[in-house]
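U., I forgot to send this yesterday:
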Amino acid sequence: MKRIILSALVISASTLGALSAQTAALLPGQLAVLRVGDGVLDPHLKQSPVFIDQFDPQIFNAAPAATVPVPTNGANAFFFNSHAATEGLLTRSADHRQLAFAGYGGVDLLAKPGTPSLLDIQRGFCTVDAAGGLHTFLYRAHDAAEKVNPRGVATDGTNHFWGCGNAGGTLYFNPAGGQGTLQFQPLQNSRAARIIHGALYISLNGPDGKAIDEPAGIYRFADKAGNPLALPIQAEATIDLVVPVEPPYTKIAAFDLNPDQTIAYLADAALGIQKYVKTGNIWRFAYNFTIPQNIPADANHAAGCFGLVADFSAAAPVIYATTTEGYDGTVNSNRVVRIVDTGAGAAVTTVAQAPSDKMAFRGIDFTPEAAR
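Result:
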Protein backbone atom coordinates (compact mmCIF):
# COMPACT_ATOMS: atom_id res chain seq x y z
CA MET A 1 0.00 0.00 0.00
CA LYS A 2 2.83 2.39 0.85
CA ARG A 3 4.40 1.78 -2.58
CA ILE A 4 1.14 2.76 -4.30
CA ILE A 5 0.88 5.99 -2.32
CA LEU A 6 4.48 6.99 -3.07
CA SER A 7 3.95 6.32 -6.76
CA ALA A 8 0.84 8.49 -6.74
CA LEU A 9 2.82 11.36 -5.24
CA VAL A 10 5.49 11.06 -7.92
CA ILE A 11 2.84 11.06 -10.63
CA SER A 12 1.10 14.02 -9.04
CA ALA A 13 4.21 16.18 -9.27
CA SER A 14 4.45 15.68 -13.03
CA THR A 15 0.71 16.20 -13.43
CA LEU A 16 0.87 19.52 -11.64
CA GLY A 17 3.78 20.65 -13.79
CA ALA A 18 1.62 20.12 -16.87
CA LEU A 19 -1.29 22.06 -15.36
CA SER A 20 0.45 25.31 -14.52
CA ALA A 21 3.63 27.27 -14.56
CA GLN A 22 5.54 26.89 -11.33
CA THR A 23 7.68 29.56 -9.76
CA ALA A 24 9.11 30.40 -6.37
CA ALA A 25 7.62 33.92 -6.42
CA LEU A 26 4.17 35.51 -6.29
CA LEU A 27 3.48 38.86 -7.93
CA PRO A 28 1.70 41.61 -5.96
CA GLY A 29 -1.77 42.77 -6.94
CA GLN A 30 -2.96 39.28 -7.89
CA LEU A 31 -5.24 36.68 -6.34
CA ALA A 32 -3.79 33.92 -4.18
CA VAL A 33 -5.94 30.80 -4.00
CA LEU A 34 -5.34 27.88 -1.67
CA ARG A 35 -5.76 24.73 -3.74
CA VAL A 36 -5.99 21.24 -2.31
CA GLY A 37 -5.39 18.25 -4.56
CA ASP A 38 -3.12 17.46 -7.48
CA GLY A 39 -5.50 15.69 -9.84
CA VAL A 40 -4.27 12.25 -8.79
CA LEU A 41 -4.97 11.54 -5.12
CA ASP A 42 -8.60 10.91 -4.19
CA PRO A 43 -9.96 13.64 -1.86
CA HIS A 44 -11.79 10.93 0.08
CA LEU A 45 -8.36 9.95 1.45
CA LYS A 46 -8.80 13.17 3.48
CA GLN A 47 -5.16 14.14 3.03
CA SER A 48 -4.01 15.83 -0.18
CA PRO A 49 -1.08 17.98 -1.26
CA VAL A 50 -1.62 21.74 -0.98
CA PHE A 51 -0.66 24.57 -3.34
CA ILE A 52 -0.93 28.36 -3.55
CA ASP A 53 -2.10 29.31 -7.06
CA GLN A 54 -1.74 32.86 -8.38
CA PHE A 55 -4.42 34.22 -10.73
CA ASP A 56 -4.75 37.56 -12.49
CA PRO A 57 -8.16 38.92 -11.39
CA GLN A 58 -8.63 40.55 -14.79
CA ILE A 59 -8.06 37.37 -16.83
CA PHE A 60 -10.87 34.82 -16.82
CA ASN A 61 -10.70 31.03 -17.21
CA ALA A 62 -6.91 30.95 -17.39
CA ALA A 63 -4.44 28.57 -15.78
CA PRO A 64 -2.60 29.88 -12.73
CA ALA A 65 0.29 32.16 -13.64
CA ALA A 66 2.35 30.78 -10.75
CA THR A 67 2.11 28.01 -8.19
CA VAL A 68 3.87 27.52 -4.86
CA PRO A 69 3.70 23.88 -3.70
CA VAL A 70 3.59 23.18 0.02
CA PRO A 71 5.98 20.34 0.97
CA THR A 72 4.38 16.95 1.51
CA ASN A 73 7.31 15.58 3.51
CA GLY A 74 10.21 16.82 5.58
CA ALA A 75 10.48 19.54 8.22
CA ASN A 76 7.91 21.86 6.61
CA ALA A 77 5.43 19.18 5.52
CA PHE A 78 1.93 20.58 5.90
CA PHE A 79 -1.58 19.73 4.72
CA PHE A 80 -5.24 19.83 5.68
CA ASN A 81 -8.29 17.61 5.19
CA SER A 82 -9.32 17.96 1.57
CA HIS A 83 -12.68 16.37 2.38
CA ALA A 84 -13.57 18.57 5.38
CA ALA A 85 -16.11 21.28 4.66
CA THR A 86 -14.61 23.71 7.18
CA GLU A 87 -10.84 23.52 6.60
CA GLY A 88 -8.65 25.47 4.20
CA LEU A 89 -9.25 29.19 4.74
CA LEU A 90 -6.51 31.59 3.59
CA THR A 91 -5.67 35.11 4.82
CA ARG A 92 -3.04 37.72 4.11
CA SER A 93 -1.14 39.11 7.08
CA ALA A 94 -1.91 42.55 8.43
CA ASP A 95 1.41 43.84 7.07
CA HIS A 96 0.60 42.30 3.65
CA ARG A 97 3.87 40.33 3.64
CA GLN A 98 2.59 36.78 4.16
CA LEU A 99 -0.21 34.39 3.39
CA ALA A 100 -1.31 32.09 6.20
CA PHE A 101 -3.47 29.00 6.61
CA ALA A 102 -4.05 26.33 9.23
CA GLY A 103 -3.66 22.57 9.09
CA TYR A 104 -1.56 19.63 10.21
CA GLY A 105 2.20 19.11 10.23
CA GLY A 106 5.12 17.28 11.79
CA VAL A 107 4.39 14.18 9.72
CA ASP A 108 4.63 13.32 6.03
CA LEU A 109 1.47 13.29 3.94
CA LEU A 110 -0.39 9.96 4.28
CA ALA A 111 2.20 8.59 6.69
CA LYS A 112 -0.77 8.21 9.03
CA PRO A 113 -3.73 7.57 6.73
CA GLY A 114 -7.23 8.66 7.70
CA THR A 115 -9.05 11.70 9.01
CA PRO A 116 -6.26 13.95 10.35
CA SER A 117 -8.41 15.55 13.06
CA LEU A 118 -8.78 12.10 14.63
CA LEU A 119 -5.12 11.12 14.35
CA ASP A 120 -2.02 11.78 16.41
CA ILE A 121 -0.87 14.66 14.16
CA GLN A 122 0.09 18.11 15.38
CA ARG A 123 -1.95 21.18 14.51
CA GLY A 124 -0.21 24.22 13.11
CA PHE A 125 -0.06 27.25 10.86
CA CYS A 126 1.80 27.71 7.58
CA THR A 127 2.99 31.01 6.12
CA VAL A 128 4.14 31.78 2.57
CA ASP A 129 5.84 35.02 1.55
CA ALA A 130 6.08 36.72 -1.85
CA ALA A 131 9.34 34.94 -2.69
CA GLY A 132 7.74 31.55 -2.02
CA GLY A 133 9.45 31.19 1.35
CA LEU A 134 7.47 28.82 3.53
CA HIS A 135 7.45 28.29 7.30
CA THR A 136 5.37 26.03 9.52
CA PHE A 137 4.55 26.61 13.17
CA LEU A 138 3.19 23.69 15.18
CA TYR A 139 1.24 24.77 18.23
CA ARG A 140 -0.81 21.86 19.48
CA ALA A 141 -0.55 18.09 19.87
CA HIS A 142 -3.48 15.84 19.09
CA ASP A 143 -6.10 15.54 21.82
CA ALA A 144 -7.49 12.01 21.78
CA ALA A 145 -10.61 13.16 23.65
CA GLU A 146 -11.67 15.73 21.04
CA LYS A 147 -11.88 16.04 17.27
CA VAL A 148 -10.05 19.32 16.70
CA ASN A 149 -10.27 20.83 13.21
CA PRO A 150 -7.96 23.79 12.52
CA ARG A 151 -9.97 25.97 10.13
CA GLY A 152 -8.04 29.17 9.58
CA VAL A 153 -5.67 31.76 11.00
CA ALA A 154 -4.95 35.48 10.97
CA THR A 155 -1.51 36.95 11.63
CA ASP A 156 0.02 40.38 11.95
CA GLY A 157 3.09 39.18 10.02
CA THR A 158 5.40 39.17 13.05
CA ASN A 159 4.72 35.64 14.32
CA HIS A 160 1.59 36.49 16.27
CA PHE A 161 -1.20 34.11 15.22
CA TRP A 162 -4.92 34.02 15.98
CA GLY A 163 -6.44 30.69 15.01
CA CYS A 164 -10.02 29.62 14.47
CA GLY A 165 -11.48 26.13 14.71
CA ASN A 166 -13.64 23.86 16.80
CA ALA A 167 -13.24 22.34 20.28
CA GLY A 168 -11.32 25.25 21.78
CA GLY A 169 -9.75 26.11 18.45
CA THR A 170 -10.14 29.89 18.78
CA LEU A 171 -6.74 30.81 20.14
CA TYR A 172 -3.67 33.01 20.22
CA PHE A 173 -0.17 31.63 19.60
CA ASN A 174 3.27 33.19 19.51
CA PRO A 175 6.04 30.66 18.78
CA ALA A 176 8.58 32.93 20.47
CA GLY A 177 6.47 33.40 23.59
CA GLY A 178 7.26 30.08 25.23
CA GLN A 179 3.79 29.95 26.82
CA GLY A 180 1.95 27.62 24.47
CA THR A 181 -1.47 28.59 23.21
CA LEU A 182 -4.05 30.86 24.77
CA GLN A 183 -7.61 29.68 24.13
CA PHE A 184 -10.38 32.26 24.08
CA GLN A 185 -13.08 30.64 26.18
CA PRO A 186 -16.05 32.72 24.91
CA LEU A 187 -15.46 31.26 21.42
CA GLN A 188 -14.96 27.51 21.64
CA ASN A 189 -15.94 27.12 17.98
CA SER A 190 -15.37 29.62 15.18
CA ARG A 191 -15.34 29.61 11.39
CA ALA A 192 -12.96 32.27 10.05
CA ALA A 193 -10.50 34.87 11.32
CA ARG A 194 -9.31 38.07 9.66
CA ILE A 195 -7.39 41.17 10.72
CA ILE A 196 -9.07 44.24 9.24
CA HIS A 197 -7.75 47.76 9.75
CA GLY A 198 -5.60 46.53 12.64
CA ALA A 199 -8.32 44.62 14.51
CA LEU A 200 -9.11 40.91 14.73
CA TYR A 201 -12.56 39.72 13.66
CA ILE A 202 -14.01 36.20 13.95
CA SER A 203 -17.09 34.63 12.35
CA LEU A 204 -19.55 32.23 13.98
CA ASN A 205 -22.09 30.23 12.00
CA GLY A 206 -25.46 29.05 13.29
CA PRO A 207 -24.37 25.96 15.28
CA ASP A 208 -21.31 27.79 16.65
CA GLY A 209 -23.49 30.58 17.98
CA LYS A 210 -26.16 28.29 19.34
CA ALA A 211 -23.57 26.40 21.37
CA ILE A 212 -22.72 29.58 23.32
CA ASP A 213 -26.17 31.19 23.13
CA GLU A 214 -25.00 33.91 20.72
CA PRO A 215 -26.30 34.79 17.23
CA ALA A 216 -24.36 33.93 14.09
CA GLY A 217 -22.30 36.77 12.67
CA ILE A 218 -19.00 38.62 12.76
CA TYR A 219 -17.46 39.32 16.17
CA ARG A 220 -14.54 41.23 17.59
CA PHE A 221 -12.95 41.12 21.04
CA ALA A 222 -13.26 43.37 24.08
CA ASP A 223 -11.90 43.53 27.62
CA LYS A 224 -14.00 42.92 30.73
CA ALA A 225 -15.15 46.54 30.72
CA GLY A 226 -16.35 46.28 27.13
CA ASN A 227 -13.50 48.29 25.61
CA PRO A 228 -12.38 47.03 22.19
CA LEU A 229 -9.26 44.86 22.00
CA ALA A 230 -7.68 45.20 18.59
CA LEU A 231 -5.45 42.11 18.73
CA PRO A 232 -6.34 40.20 21.91
CA ILE A 233 -3.73 38.31 23.91
CA GLN A 234 -5.64 38.32 27.21
CA ALA A 235 -7.15 35.15 28.67
CA GLU A 236 -10.11 37.15 30.00
CA ALA A 237 -11.03 38.65 26.61
CA THR A 238 -14.74 38.77 25.86
CA ILE A 239 -16.57 39.01 22.53
CA ASP A 240 -18.69 41.73 20.98
CA LEU A 241 -21.09 41.17 18.08
CA VAL A 242 -20.34 43.49 15.15
CA VAL A 243 -22.45 42.21 12.23
CA PRO A 244 -25.41 39.92 13.03
CA VAL A 245 -26.52 37.78 10.10
CA GLU A 246 -30.11 37.06 9.14
CA PRO A 247 -31.62 33.61 8.62
CA PRO A 248 -31.42 31.64 6.45
CA TYR A 249 -27.88 32.92 5.84
CA THR A 250 -26.24 31.32 8.85
CA LYS A 251 -23.96 28.75 7.20
CA ILE A 252 -21.23 31.35 7.02
CA ALA A 253 -17.48 30.94 6.65
CA ALA A 254 -15.15 33.64 5.30
CA PHE A 255 -15.97 37.34 5.37
CA ASP A 256 -14.58 40.80 4.71
CA LEU A 257 -15.29 44.34 5.93
CA ASN A 258 -14.42 47.68 4.38
CA PRO A 259 -11.99 49.89 6.38
CA ASP A 260 -14.84 52.19 7.48
CA GLN A 261 -16.76 49.18 8.79
CA THR A 262 -19.93 50.12 6.93
CA ILE A 263 -20.02 47.27 4.37
CA ALA A 264 -19.66 43.57 5.11
CA TYR A 265 -19.65 40.55 2.80
CA LEU A 266 -20.07 37.00 4.06
CA ALA A 267 -19.76 33.67 2.29
CA ASP A 268 -22.55 31.20 3.00
CA ALA A 269 -21.60 27.62 2.11
CA ALA A 270 -25.10 26.82 0.85
CA LEU A 271 -26.63 30.07 -0.40
CA GLY A 272 -23.99 32.38 -1.89
CA ILE A 273 -22.63 35.75 -0.73
CA GLN A 274 -24.52 38.21 1.46
CA LYS A 275 -24.03 41.97 1.72
CA TYR A 276 -24.75 43.91 4.91
CA VAL A 277 -24.68 47.70 5.19
CA LYS A 278 -24.36 49.81 8.32
CA THR A 279 -26.59 52.87 8.57
CA GLY A 280 -26.09 54.85 11.75
CA ASN A 281 -25.38 52.14 14.32
CA ILE A 282 -27.54 49.46 12.72
CA TRP A 283 -26.36 46.72 10.37
CA ARG A 284 -28.98 45.69 7.83
CA PHE A 285 -29.07 42.90 5.28
CA ALA A 286 -28.89 44.39 1.79
CA TYR A 287 -29.08 41.43 -0.61
CA ASN A 288 -27.73 38.01 -1.50
CA PHE A 289 -25.69 37.07 -4.55
CA THR A 290 -26.84 33.66 -5.77
CA ILE A 291 -24.07 31.70 -7.47
CA PRO A 292 -25.06 30.16 -10.87
CA GLN A 293 -24.09 26.49 -10.94
CA ASN A 294 -22.16 24.48 -13.51
CA ILE A 295 -22.89 21.09 -11.94
CA PRO A 296 -26.37 19.52 -12.22
CA ALA A 297 -28.35 19.92 -9.01
CA ASP A 298 -28.79 16.19 -8.39
CA ALA A 299 -25.00 15.68 -8.53
CA ASN A 300 -23.91 18.89 -6.84
CA HIS A 301 -22.40 19.13 -3.37
CA ALA A 302 -23.47 22.71 -2.52
CA ALA A 303 -24.35 26.00 -4.18
CA GLY A 304 -22.64 28.57 -1.95
CA CYS A 305 -19.20 30.02 -1.26
CA PHE A 306 -16.43 29.35 1.25
CA GLY A 307 -13.39 31.61 0.83
CA LEU A 308 -13.94 35.33 0.27
CA VAL A 309 -12.00 38.58 -0.05
CA ALA A 310 -13.11 41.99 -1.32
CA ASP A 311 -11.33 44.88 -3.00
CA PHE A 312 -12.77 48.11 -1.62
CA SER A 313 -10.46 50.48 -3.53
CA ALA A 314 -13.04 51.43 -6.21
CA ALA A 315 -16.50 52.96 -5.92
CA ALA A 316 -18.04 49.53 -6.58
CA PRO A 317 -16.37 46.88 -4.38
CA VAL A 318 -15.14 43.78 -6.17
CA ILE A 319 -15.74 40.45 -4.42
CA TYR A 320 -13.72 37.30 -5.06
CA ALA A 321 -14.82 33.96 -3.65
CA THR A 322 -14.39 30.21 -3.97
CA THR A 323 -17.51 28.13 -4.53
CA THR A 324 -18.65 25.01 -2.66
CA GLU A 325 -19.87 23.00 -5.65
CA GLY A 326 -18.53 19.54 -6.35
CA TYR A 327 -19.34 15.93 -7.12
CA ASP A 328 -19.73 12.92 -4.83
CA GLY A 329 -20.41 14.72 -1.57
CA THR A 330 -17.34 16.95 -1.45
CA VAL A 331 -16.01 20.21 -2.84
CA ASN A 332 -14.15 19.69 -6.10
CA SER A 333 -14.15 20.95 -9.70
CA ASN A 334 -15.21 24.23 -8.14
CA ARG A 335 -14.48 27.83 -9.12
CA VAL A 336 -13.03 31.18 -8.20
CA VAL A 337 -15.73 33.75 -8.96
CA ARG A 338 -15.74 37.55 -9.24
CA ILE A 339 -18.60 39.98 -8.57
CA VAL A 340 -18.42 43.73 -9.14
CA ASP A 341 -20.99 44.96 -6.64
CA THR A 342 -23.13 47.27 -8.72
CA GLY A 343 -26.29 45.96 -7.04
CA ALA A 344 -28.27 42.84 -6.29
CA GLY A 345 -28.32 41.79 -9.95
CA ALA A 346 -24.55 42.02 -10.47
CA ALA A 347 -23.04 39.36 -12.72
CA VAL A 348 -21.07 36.44 -11.31
CA THR A 349 -18.00 35.81 -13.49
CA THR A 350 -15.74 32.75 -13.33
CA VAL A 351 -12.07 33.63 -12.89
CA ALA A 352 -10.86 30.03 -12.72
CA GLN A 353 -12.20 26.50 -12.43
CA ALA A 354 -10.49 23.54 -10.81
CA PRO A 355 -9.81 21.16 -13.73
CA SER A 356 -10.39 17.91 -11.85
CA ASP A 357 -12.73 16.30 -9.34
CA LYS A 358 -9.55 15.59 -7.39
CA MET A 359 -8.85 19.30 -6.93
CA ALA A 360 -10.61 22.05 -5.01
CA PHE A 361 -10.11 25.77 -4.46
CA ARG A 362 -10.57 26.67 -0.78
CA GLY A 363 -9.28 29.92 0.75
CA ILE A 364 -8.61 33.11 -1.19
CA ASP A 365 -6.90 36.45 -0.58
CA PHE A 366 -4.62 38.87 -2.36
CA THR A 367 -0.99 37.96 -3.01
CA PRO A 368 1.64 39.11 -0.52
CA GLU A 369 3.91 42.07 -1.11
CA ALA A 370 7.68 41.73 -1.07
CA ALA A 371 9.54 43.03 1.96
CA ARG A 372 11.15 46.40 1.36
